[in-house]
Structure formats: structure tokens, C-alpha cells
Amino acid sequence: LVKYTQPLFVKSEDPDSRRKIAEKIRERVTSGKDFEQLLLFPEGGCGNRKALLQFKLGGFAPGVPVQPVFIRYKNELDTCTWSWEGPGALKQLWLTLTQFSIRCELEFLPVYRPSEYERENPRIFADNVRSFVSCWTETPMSCFTVDDARFLKMAKDSFLPPTAALVKLLRLRKSIGRHHIDLSDELLELKGKRKYFEKMRGNVKHMAFYLGLERCPEVLKDFYRTLDQHETNSLDVRVYDAGLYLLRTDLKVREKLKRAFRVFGTENAPAEHLETILLYWKGVPTLKAFSKLDKFDPEELHSS
Q1: HSE-up (13 A, CA, CB side) for residue 258
Q2: Which of 106, 220, 223, 252 is the most exposed place for a label (fewest CB within 10 A)?
Q3: A GO term (biological process) for this protein (predicted)?
Q4: Distance between CA 143 and CA 165 in Å, rounded?
């Protein structure tokens, strides 16, 4: 029955499978052949329905119009929400089957037609569609992707605050093969590199050069976007080093925060550096959002 609908099967953990599916999606929507409309779930997985996760690019790379559809489950007892933490799939299925009925509402939003710039930039296209859906349905947006789930668990298991910035850092270190490197050793290596690194601020390519990733700067984009809260396209490369200090589990909270500040080269950190620490440790994007700044205390930052 599933095969009758002409589905595209993808193995999410296999990059080659994802690439082939992206090519097939492009072929279907641009070939002019008599295919049915292609149904995609842009988040790429399940969330808790409290916010929109980041959209994946597969459905936006072809640069053709899309029609968002928003699904609402109206039952008082929610048995349809299934995320990385909580009951397993079988239990959720059993609880759903015990309901007398499942009320589901589909809202078809207006067709979104991409601009020329969006057609050339799938990431912008996907983000703008997500913003459109968010505004239309009054649903907040999240910095997380469905792929961040296991790194959220990793942060939780390490007694770290599950903020987007720290999760993106954990994921970045995994993707570039540095998750096995001792944090102290990596910090020592970067400290030596900073002595000969004249310009500390720059775009994502500049940070890639600092981290020795100049051949694949795209691996940094998600992390960079999360830290670049003011969208200036100019970050201090030491935000990476500061994050490494905050990942350390061998230091007390006050000490790791102090060292994270010091990595910027000053005891009295300017507002931008303080915002970086707050973003990492509390998920607070700006100083204005931190109402208790005049009572700043590392131990208070550690509390949830």
C-alpha cells in the first residue's frame, strides 16, 4: 500500500542515501512528468509540537513553489506527540489505539512562491517558509533540528545546560571528528594558534581557517548562525574556545565560566563576550533579555 503512493525511501543516517533522495526530489518536481504532488515533512522527524524545528533543505533545493500544511491534533489527551525523550513508539501507538477517536485538523496555507534569491539559496528559502508558517499559525520557532536530539541527551547526561549553542558545539565537534580529543588538549592547541592569529573577528570562512577547516567551511554554518545572534556575519573566533571551557566536566561552574571569559583576553569582558557566555549557558540571546544582569552570579547561571 505504501509503495503504491510512489514514496521515496531515505536512510537518514546515510549521507549517500540523502544525496540520492535529494536528486530524485529535484527530478520529480522539475521533470514535467505526471507525478502526484510530493508530500514532505520538512522538519525531518518528530518534535513536541511546542515549536517548529529547523526545516531540512530537501524540499526547498529545487526552488519550486511549496504549499505548507499545518497539522493540529485536537484530542484533549495527546498521544500523537512523539519526540526523542518520553514513551517509545509502541507505547504511543497503544495509547493512540485506546482513544475512541483521533481528531486531526489540516490547515492548508497559501502557496509560497520563492523569489529568485530564495531559489538560489535553499537555506534562506527554507527559513523564510518556516517563518511564514510560524507567523500564520502563531507557533514559535526553535533553533534545534531533529538531528540535535542525541546531542541534547549528551548534554543532559553530562549535566550541561541543553542550550542550542552548546548542543550545536557538541554536534560540530562530532562532525569534524574532534569529539574524542581531550578538551584540555584542544584548548592548549588553540591557545598556541591564537598567538599567531592576528585577526580575531571574521565570517564563517575566517573561523574555518582558524579551526583548520578551510576546505569544508560549510560544516561550521549551523554553529556559526546560532552564535551570530545579531546576524552581523562577524564573530570572534574565540567563541569556539569559550564553548570548549563550558563543556569541561572537570571544572566547577564558577571556574569554567571564569576561564571562558578569560579566553577573550580580558577580565572585564565587554557586553558581546558576556552575551556569548549567556547564550551558551542559559540560552539567553542578548543582555536585554537577561533581567537579572545586575545580580550576575555564575552559580545562578548554573541553576535551571
Answers
A1: 6
A2: 106
A3: phospholipid biosynthetic process
A4: 9
CA–CA distance, 266 with 117 (Å, rounded to integer): 41
- Cβ atoms 155, 170 nearer than 8 A: yes
SS (H, E, C) 231-249: CCCCEECHHHHHHHHHHCC
The CA distance from 54 to 140, in Å, is 11
Dist. CA 82–CA 48, nearest whole Å: 7
Whether 242 and 235 have beta carbons less than 8 Å apart is answered as no
| DSSP bridge partners of 52 | 141
The DSSP output letter for 85 is S
> How far is the C-alpha of 260 from the C-alpha of 298, rounded, in Å?
12
Positions in the chain short of pLDDT 70: 1, 12-13, 84, 266-269, 285-304
Q: b or e along 209-238 (b: 16 or more beta carbons within 10 Å of the residue's beta carbon)?
A: ebbebeeebebbebbbbbbebeeeeebbbb
Distance, in Å, from the CA atom of 166 to the CA atom of 247, rounded to the nearest integer, reads 8
Extract the C-alpha cell encoding 248.
Answer: 569541561
Q: Is residue 169 within 8 Å of residue 152, measured between CB atoms? A: no
Closest to 210 measured CA to CA, from 178, 237, 181: 237
Strand partners, 106: 71
State the first-to-last Cα distance of the chain, in angstroms, to the nearest integer. Answer: 48
233, three cell numbers: 556575519
Q: What CA–CA distances, in Å, run from 208 to 142, 143, 172, 220? A: 25, 21, 12, 7
User: pTM, whole model, 2 decimals?
Assistant: 0.75
Predicted local distance difference test score (pLDDT) of residue 272: 83
Longest dimension (CA), the chain: 68
Q: Residue 207 region, left (φ>0) first, then alpha (ψ -120 to 50), else beta?
A: alpha
**Cell, residue 94:** 497503544
